[in-house]
Design brief:
The protein is α+β, with helices and mostly antiparallel strands. It has 16 helices and 15 strands. It catalyses: tRNA(Ile) + L-isoleucine + ATP = L-isoleucyl-tRNA(Ile) + AMP + diphosphate.
Length: about 450
C-alpha cells in the first residue's frame, strides 16, 4: 500500500498512513484487542485549549506517544483518555482582555449583583477555554499522537471535580491533609501565588531604596541594632531580628555618641572610619536580647522583638542582622515556626496596609515605602538609605512586581511519605539513568509538603 520511491513524498505517505489508521480504527483496536487483565495505565497531562498548540506541545506529545505504543506492542492494554485543563488565570486574563476590564473588582461588577457577575464571567471562560479545540485536535491527529479525543475528561465538569473531592477525602481520612501558611511569590493584582517555574518567566531590573534601620536596644541606653532591608514596607510586620550564631559582631560608638551593633566585617563599609569599636562578641552572645519595636502594632508572643539565631544570616551584604517579618519571607516564616512567633498580616491580599497600621491603612505597599522611610528619618531611626538596582521577579501575566506573601493554604504532608517515595524510585528504570539518583533523586530527598491550594 505504501510504496517508497527514490524521491518519496513524505507528506503524502503520512496522510495515507493516517487515513489507513482512521478507516481501520487501528487505535481503538489496539486497545480492545488486548486483555483487560494486562493494563498499562497512562494519564494525559491536559493542555489548555484557549491557546494555540506550539512546537513544545508537539515535542512533548511525541515523547508521550513512545511509551504507550511500546507497551501496546508488548501486549498491554493501554487506554489513553484525552483531557482539557479548563481552569487557571490564562483563561481568565483572555476573557478580561476581551471584555476590556482588569481585576477581580471589575469581574464582580459585570452585572448589578456580584453572584450574577461571577456566573456570567465563568460562562464566558467556559466558552473561551475551547477557542482552539479544533486546532488542537487537528494537530494531535496530524502528528499521529494516539489518544481518545472523543471522550475527554474536562476539569470544569462536575464529575471530574467530584472525583477530586473523593481523592481529597481519602487523603484527609489518612491524616495527610492540614492547614497552615505558605510564603510564596504573590501577585496582588491577580490575587494569586506563582510557582517557581512561573516566577522564572519574567525577571526585570528594578531600582529600589534599601535602608539601614536602627532598632533600639531595650536594655542598653543609646544602643541600636542595625538591620538592612530592601523592602521598607515589611517593617510594620517586624517581630524579631536574626543573627548568625558564629558571626563576629562589634559594638561601635559614633561621633554622635550613639552605639551601633552590626557584623564586624561590615562596620568599616557602613559606618566609615570615624566609628570606634568598643566591644566584640559572636552572634550567640546577642541571642535573647530585647529591642524596642519601631511600629506600635499589637503582636502576641513572649519572643517577639527578640534577637534570635538564624542559619540563613550572612555577611555577604547588609549588616549581618536580618529584620524578620514572618509573613513576607520564606526564611522569616521558617524562623517563626521554630520559635512560635506571631503570624499577623499587616498587608491585605490586595497589597494595601491593614487597619492595624494606622498611618498607612489602605495605602499600597510600594507607595508607602517612601512614607515609611520619611517617618523613620523623622524619628531618627534611619541610619542610611541607598538606591539598589537588582533583578526582580514580575508577574508573567500582568507584568506587575511580585511580593513574597504568606497565604493560608491546605497542605498534603508529603514529608511523611518521603521514605516510601525514595524506595519506589529504586524500582523505576530511568532513562537517562543518572536522573534516578541525580535530579529526581535529589528532589525526593528534599521532599516538601505540597501546598495543594496554591
Amino acid at each position: 500500500m505504501f510504496i517508497l520511491t527514490p524521491k518519496p513524498d513524505y507528506k503524502k505517505i503520512e496522510t495515507e498512513v493516517l487515513t489507513f489508521w482512521k478507516n481501520k480504527k487501528i487505535f481503538a483496536r489496539s486497545i480492545s484487542e488486548r486483555p483487560e487483565s494486562k493494563k498499562f495505565v497512562f494519564y494525559e497531562g491536559p493542555p489548555t485549549a484557549n491557546g494555540h498548540p506550539g512546537i513544545h506541545h508537539i515535542i512533548a506529545r511525541a515523547y508521550k506517544d513512545i511509551i504507550p505504543r511500546y507497551k501496546t506492542m508488548r501486549g498491554f492494554r493501554v487506554p489513553r483518555q484525552a483531557g482539557w485543563d479548563t481552569h487557571g488565570l490564562p483563561v481568565e486574563l483572555e476573557v478580561e482582555k476581551m471584555l476590556g476590564i482588569s481585576g477581580k473588582d471589575k469581574i464582580e461588577s459585570l452585572t448589578p449583583t456580584k453572584r450574577e457577575s461571577i456566573i456570567k464571567f465563568n460562562q464566558l471562560c467556559k466558552e473561551n477555554v475551547f477557542k482552539y479545540q479544533k486546532e488542537w485536535e487537528r494537530v494531535t491527529e496530524r502528528i499521529g499522537y494516539w489518544i481518545d479525543m472523543d471522550n475527554p475528561y474536562i476539569t470544569f465538569k462536575n464529575e471530574y471535580i467530584e472525583k477530586l473531592w473523593g481523592i481529597i477525602k481519602i487523603i484527609w481520612s489518612k491524616g495527610f491533609l492540614y492547614q497552615d501558611y505558605k510564603v510564596l511569590p504573590y501577585c496582588f493584582r491577580c490575587g494569586t501565588g506563582l510557582s517557581s517555574h512561573e516566577v522564572a518567566q519574567e525577571f526585570k531590573d528594578k531600582t529600589d531604596t534599601s535602608i539601614f534601620v536602627k532598632f533600639k536596644s531595650a536594655s542598653e541606653e543609646n544602643t541600636f541594632f542595625l538591620a538592612w532591608t530592601t523592602t521598607p514596607w515589611t517593617l510594620p510586620g517586624n517581630v524579631a531580628l536574626a543573627v548568625g550564631k558564629e558571626i563576629k559582631y562589634g559594638k561601635y560608638q559614633l561621633e554622635t555618641g550613639k552605639k551601633i551593633i552590626l557584623a564586624e566585617n561590615l562596620a568599616l563599609k557602613i559606618l566609615g572610619e570615624k566609628a570606634t569599636k568598643i566591644d566584640l562578641f559572636i552572634g550567640a552572645d546577642l541571642v535573647g536580647q530585647k529591642y524596642e519595636p519601631i511600629f506600635n502594632i499589637e503582636k502576641t508572643h513572649k519572643d517577639q522583638f527578640t534577637i534570635l539565631p538564624g542559619d540563613f544570616v550572612s555577611t555577604s551584604e547588609g549588616s549581618g542582622i536580618v529584620h524578620t517579618a514572618v509573613m513576607y519571607g520564606e526564611d522569616d516564616f521558617a524562623l517563626s515556626k521554630k520559635f512560635n512567633l506571631p503570624t499577623i498580616h499587616t498587608v491585605d491580599p490586595k497589597g494595601n496596609f491593614t487597619d492595624q497600621v494606622k498611618k498607612l491603612a489602605g495605602k499600597n505597599i510600594f507607595i508607602a515605602n517612601q512614607i515609611i522611610i520619611d517617618d523613620l528619618k523623622q524619628r531618627d531611626l534611619l541610619f542610611k538609605e541607598l538606591k539598589i538596582t537588582h533583578s526582580y521577579p514580575f508577574c508573567w501575566r500582568c507584568h506587575n512586581p511580585l511580593i513574597y506573601y504568606a497565604k493560608e493554604s491546605w497542605f498534603i504532608a508529603m514529608k511523611k511519605l518521603r521514605s516510601q517515595l525514595v524506595s519506589n524510585n529504586e524500582k523505576i528504570n530511568w532513562i537517562p539513568a543518572h536522573l534516578k539518583h541525580g535530579r529526581f533523586g535529589n528532589w525526593l530527598d528534599e521532599t516538601k509538603d505540597w501546598a495543594l491550594s496554591r
